[in-house]
Amino acid sequence: MKLTDIINAKNVAEGSKRTYLSILKRVDADGFKIPTGKSEMINRISEYIGNLEKTSQKLDILNIIITIRNELDVTSDKIKELRDTFRKKRVTDNVSVMNDLKPKLMSLSEFDDKLQAMYDNKEYANFVVNYLFRHFGVRNKDVDVTILNRKKDMDDGNYLWIRPKSVTYLRKDYKTKSSYGEKKYEITDKKFRVAVRKLGQGPILKTGLLTNVLKKVIITKESDVFKMLIDDAYSRQDWEEIKRLSESRGTNIKTIAENYHVNADGKDKI
């Protein structure tokens, strides 16, 4: 069986599948053969990833090797040990990156002022998008929503359903749905409800590559909004808020501590 067939047969999200196949293509272009037999070929693997510059690239390769070997039911104990080494290095590297970012992060109050200005200027689509980032800590894909009056018109996308006294924010299509399931929130905020009703039914973002569309809409990029929210909650030692953001985004606490915690010092964990 071809390695691509193994990936295509896996029961994972299409986005994850595309990522796996892209890594396989890179490995093949480099002329590296993934070991599929009993021998883990750890020295050959170490030599190959040693030529890669970024820790994230090394982890990508190790993950795909382990994934394929798991599907073939052969052990990968030594490869997993090597992966753990680079996972620890990535955490250390991230601490430095996060610390450098902290002084550059927008404050929550500054963000809120800009959000209010959008509402005051009747920039309702911009207001709705940034409101969702601000209150739910979601990813780019999650704000690509369609406004509807009727629940029966929903499919498998992300929606804002207008109700008599609220707006239901329903996410059926997001990065970690396979782990966290559908997400549903009732938003009663008056300004948000007014903005949604003013926009009316249909998609709130223009067609085109989502990242390009959002550049003209967002106050600051999505990952920095989430870091800002975590930083604010951490400064107030509001652990319940961090748990809430973990749940609403669909990201575990460990990932937040390692990738979104600008106060990290390598020891302290959220």
Q: What does it look like?
A:
The chain is of the alpha+beta class and 270 residues long. The chain has 2 domains: 3-100; 108-259. The protein is 56% helix and 7% strand. The chain is built from 13 helices and 5 strands. It has helices at 3-8, 14-29, 42-49, 55-71, 77-101, 108-120, 124-136, 177-180, 190-199, 210-215, 222-235, 239-249, 253-259; strands at residues 146-148, 158-162, 167-171, 183-187, 202-203. The chain has a 5-stranded mixed sheet, with helices on one face. Strand 2 (158-162) and strand 3 form a beta hairpin. Helix 4 packs antiparallel against helix 5. It is globular, with a radius of gyration of 22 Å. The model has no long low-confidence stretch (mean pLDDT 91).
Summarize the structure.
By secondary structure, the chain is of the alpha+beta class. It contains 13 helices and 5 strands. The chain has helices at 3-8, 14-29, 42-49, 55-71, 77-101, 108-120, 124-136, 177-180, 190-199, 210-215, 222-235, 239-249, 253-259, and strands spanning 146-148, 158-162, 167-171, 183-187, 202-203.
Strand ordering within the main sheet: 4-3-2-1-5
How many helical stretches?
13
Fraction of helical residues: 55-70%
Q: Average pLDDT value?
A: 91
Could you say which overall geometry the principal axes of the C-alpha atoms support? globular
- How far from one another are the termini? 44 Å
What's the structural domain tally? 2
Topology pattern, helix = H, strand = E? HHHHHHHEEEHEHEHHHH
In total, the number of strands is 5
Percent of residues in β-strands: 5-15%
Protein structure class: alpha+beta
Low-pLDDT stretches are none
Alpha-carbon Rg, integer: 22 Å
Q: Major beta sheet, specifics? A: 5 strands, mixed
